[in-house]
Amino acid sequence: MNRYKGAKRDNDSVYFEKVPTLSSLPAIQGAILAKPQPFDCHDPEVCGADIFQKLVPLVMMKLNEFSKMKFHFLGCTFSSIGI
């Protein structure tokens, strides 16, 4: 209510316009400002290329790392025994 009193005081001393009471103001009606447009979010024409297609899950990265370590270990072992 203090903001209302401050705004009314400013209006009375600067703008000199009548401030309507809240009950005299009409209710604000909603309005549709945009019409919905149906689209398929999986359509490449709409969303472009999949930005995550090259992203590899962490489990697969660890598995790949483990495979590299395994092949390195086996290579070292086989070379040390002469195979």
List low-confidence stretches. Answer: none
Q: What is the general shape?
A: elongated
**What proportion of the residues is helical, as a percent range?**
40-55%
> Largest sheet, described in full?
none
Number of alpha- plus pi-helical segments: 3
Q: Report the radius of gyration as a whole number of Å.
A: 35 Å
Derived structural class: mainly alpha
Number of strands: 0
H/E element sequence = HHH
Note the gap between the termini.
91 Å
The protein's oligomeric status is single chain
> What integer is the average pLDDT?
82
Q: Which band does the percent of strand residues land in?
A: under 5%
Characterize the structure shown.
- With 83 residues, the protein is mainly α.
- It has a domain at 51-83.
- Helix content is 51%, strand content 0%.
- The longest helix has 24 residues, at 58-81.
- The N and C termini lie far apart (91 Å).
SSE arrangement:
Layout: H1 2-15, H2 44-47, H3 58-81
Sum up the structure in keywords:
83 residues; 3 helices
